[in-house]
Design a protein that fits this description.
Strand content: under 5%
Mean pLDDT: 94
Largest sheet: none
Number of helices: 2
């Protein structure tokens, strides 16, 4: 079996275990990640807008 495939399966198993064992904390983590991504996207949009409009 490929090492990359084994690592992927272990990663999926770890995520599933975390979601099943502590669903509240898993939901908070996903919310934090989405907030970070949204804030980052807004910063990039602001930067690009200022470059082309400034």
């Amino acid at each position: 079996m490929d090492v990359k495939k084994i690592a992927g399966l272990l990663g999926i198993a770890l995520v599933l275990f975390f979601v099943i064992a502590q669903p509240g904390q898993a939901a908070n983590l996903v919310g934090n990640i989405l907030t970070f991504l949204r804030t980052s996207a807004e910063a990039v949009i602001t930067f690009v807008s200022n470059v082309f409009n400034g």
